[in-house]
Amino acid sequence: ASTILDYQKTNTEMDTAIQTLRHNMKYVLNSAKFDYSNGPLEGINRKIKTLKRTCYGFANQKFFFLRIDCIFS
After folding, report:
1. Which of 8, 46, 49, 64 is in Cβ range 3.0-4.6 Å of 58 for a Cys bridge?
2. Residue limits of the Transposase IS204/IS1001/IS1096/IS1165 DDE domain (predicted)?
3. What is the spatial distance between Cα 5 and Cα 2, in angstroms, rounded to a whole number?
4. 52-66 burial, b for 16+ CB within 10 Å, e for fewer?
C-alpha cells in the first residue's frame, strides 16, 4: 500500500490506475480481508435475465416464477 501512496505522477495510463486505487483503497483492502463476494448473486440475476430474454415473455407472472423455481431447485 505504501508504493501506491508514494507514487509520483508520470503522465501515463498508470496515473489513472493509481488514482483509482487510491480512491477505492478502503474497498480494495476490504475485498482482500473478507471472503465475501456478490458473484453468486450476480450469477442468479444473469440466469433470470437470460430466461426472461429467451422466453419472449410469459402468459402470466405465475409461470415465470414457476420457471425460475425450476431452474434453482
Report:
1. 64
2. 11-68
3. 5
4. eeeeeeeeeeeebee
Q: What are phi and psi of 16, to 5 degrees?
A: -65, -45
**Domain count along the chain:** 2
End-to-end CA distance of the chain: 44
pTM: 0.56
What's the rounded Cα separation, in Å, for the pair 56 and 19?
A: 44
- The residue segments making up the domain with residue 52 are 39-71
d(CA 22, CA 24): 6
User: Which pLDDT does position 6 carry in this prediction?
Assistant: 85
